[in-house]
């Protein structure tokens, strides 16, 4: 039966989400025909389990849930105070003045970021590309018009607002970036914050990879002066603490930011109370443990392996082609050799050395001719991948 109702938003304008399914299809077709194995550096999922301190906290909290005196029901929508306090301390340590009441715990930066668009009416949206597709799809679903800014070799995949009209807009920024691994320095972030303040825009800053920012680079948008008046930040424990399967994130909304006469923080609180019932107690205790001194040290050891992988693969690639990603970034972003398109290179890498990555063109038009390798692998796997990359016949 066909419903006699209209579709919501602008679903027709969404392109089919085919990138990873096409990658999977080509990989399984290859394996079906040739047998054996491949190394898959395409997906951005973690390779190591959560650390001991987190596991202990999860177990303790699980036991509490089975205890008459200590079990908990619905959690507070914005998160338990103990976790909001831990997150506020995380910001204070970075020199950012975020307090616990400006923190909202969520179940993943993907859903937080896309849900946040509920707060805005029809608005111009500025999106640098190549891009994590969630910002684009969320804007399109709401029927917002999008101005794409090209990230390319000339601007080191870090577009700036120079020359943009001072029209109020929703601005998406992600640094360290997925897919390009590029990282804004303080000057770049300041340019964006100044532009947002001048134009009455909001910056939605995705800091999901902040743990990977190189020494001396900002880990939070709040390092830029004035960001507390125009920027909302999304952060996640998925990649920094191995929470992709546990699910925990947060949004920080400085209380001074207003939208249509209301405080943005109050609009989000209202939205969450209508549509969200909070993150489980057990997970929040795990998140608190990940942010503790001991937990953070254990998580950093794992992040350091991913960073090392990045240096292992990036070190070689820098000798043979242009590499756009920053030092120790979670994704290596490089130019395909010999003018190959992204998909041509994908097929060649798979066919010749049995290595899978992600074609850059899947993240936006400026990604054509580029390629992404994920560094979320065990060190052993990354070294094997390096051996295969070195054997590829295309480099000279
Ligand atoms: N933001 C970026 C840029 C990402 O690459 C990802 C996941 O790959 C997310 C957000 C989603 O994070 P989460 O697992 O917290 O939903």
Topology, pairings included?
Layout: H1 19-34, E1 39-40, H2 52-65, H3 81-93, E2 103-106, H4 109-116, E3 125-129, H5 133-141, E4 146-150, E5 170-174, H6 186-199, E6 202-206, E7 231-236, E8 249-252, E9 258-259, E10 262-263, H7 264-275, H8 281-291, H9 293-320, E11 331-335, H10 342-353, E12 355-356, E13 358-359, E14 370-374, H11 379-391
Parallel strand pairs: 1-12, 3-4, 3-5, 5-6, 6-7
Antiparallel strand pairs: 2-8, 7-8, 9-10, 11-14, 13-14
Helix pairs in contact: 2-8, 3-8, 4-5, 9-11
Bound molecules: pyridoxal-5'-phosphate.
Residues 44, 108-110, 132, 174, 178, 206, 208, 236, 238, 244, 249 line the site of pyridoxal-5'-phosphate (PLP).
Describe the structure.
By secondary structure, this protein is of the alpha/beta class. It has eleven helices and 14 strands. The chain has helices at 19-34, 52-65, 81-93, 109-116, 133-141, 186-199, 264-275, 281-291, 293-320, 342-353, 379-391; strands at 39-40, 103-106, 125-129, 146-150, 170-174, 202-206, 231-236, 249-252, 258-259, 262-263, 331-335, 355-356, 358-359, 370-374. Strands 2-8-7-6-5-3-4 form a seven-stranded mixed beta sheet, with helices on both faces. A three-stranded antiparallel beta sheet has the order 11-14-13. Strands 1-12 form a two-stranded parallel sheet. Helix 9 packs parallel to helix 11 (379-391). The radius of gyration is 21 Å and the shape is globular. The N and C termini lie far apart (59 Å). The mean pLDDT is 95. The chain binds pyridoxal-5'-phosphate (PLP). Residues 44, 108-110, 132, 174, 178, 206, 208, 236, 238, 244, 249 line the site of pyridoxal-5'-phosphate. Pyridoxal-5'-phosphate (PLP) binds next to helix 4.
